[in-house]
Amino acid sequence: MNWTRRGVLAATVSVSLAGCLGDSDGIGPYEPEGGSEDVTVEPMTASPDETAVSETALPIADEQLPVSYPLETLRDAVVDGGVPQDGIPSIDDPAFEPVADVDDRFREDDPVFGVVREGEARAYPQSILVHHEIVNDEIGGESVAVTYCPLTGTAMGFERGGVEFGVSGNLVNSNLIMYDREGESMWPQMLGTAIEGPLEAASLREFPVHWNTWNDWRAAYPDSTVLTEDTGYVRDYGDDPYGMYNPVSGYYREDSDPIFEPLRSDDREPPKRMVLGARPPEGPLSIDLETLRDERLLEIEHEDATLLAVHDRSLDLGFLYRNPSEETFVLEEDRIVDENDDAYAPDDVPLERVYAYDAMWFAWTGFYPETTHFG
């Protein structure tokens, strides 16, 4: 049986999720119409319109992000997610409260998405973003969009220059397609690149948004603020329409199938196994998060590059660095120590940081089927 997002989201209004979907094993497998292996993998060659880029208020990246398919292929793969444009409403006037004022609204292991910019730290509860997917915010004096796609498990940040983003209602490879409210270009979240509209082939400026637990976040950032349920919308923020992360159940189980057919299939990992994905110039790569948690420090040889993957145990985060001089680093307790016995926190290693984000395996390999995987 195939389910639309409209059906899943409506389940929280009309009946309980368990009653709608049958049991905690989650939504049944998708039924492909044609084979996903028929999708041509060929790097994007399109260039953005220079006039449109010069006229937009959106901050556009100096270099295009890599895209593994022609834009026409991605447009052909767009599906109706079952809700109209803005049917999942973005939060455009977010309200926050100090961590100390939250009391017992969250359990210790409840997921929140953490952002630190210009010395300002904020947490965005997954229980709220699952109902809105985009928060148009200002952090450290800069206009940003904090975004979350529950179907691909991806939390990502983008600079927006005062232009708001909204939820288009469409998906590609199960991933949220955002639209900007300036010219209505269409931006798949995971690609950060417009596939249609005036800014087609242009890429946004990204920044990290990290998965954390409430307990780890408040311990690390006791003076930070947290998004409140004062969103301007009536929602049951205690009910996730897709399942639960604490404990993991429903759609989020790593061995369950996606609702929508992925662009490509790859059985090296269970469909919703979480990986740390990156797109360095040498080509996309992914690192199994459980492996990184266990090893805590990984030296990765990727094409002609040497990279260093580091796990921060205090926040359960993975960081990726470029190590061109192939310096030797070792792990001592919770510090990373170099050849001169200088010690660094996992998020402060003196190497070039490579942008990376967490994603479900099927989503990452759907967009980047040529990925090199370290599992």
From TrEMBL:
Pfam families: DUF3179. Residues 22-49 are annotated as: Disordered. InterPro entries: DUF3179. This is DUF3179 domain-containing protein. It comes from Natronococcus pandeyae.
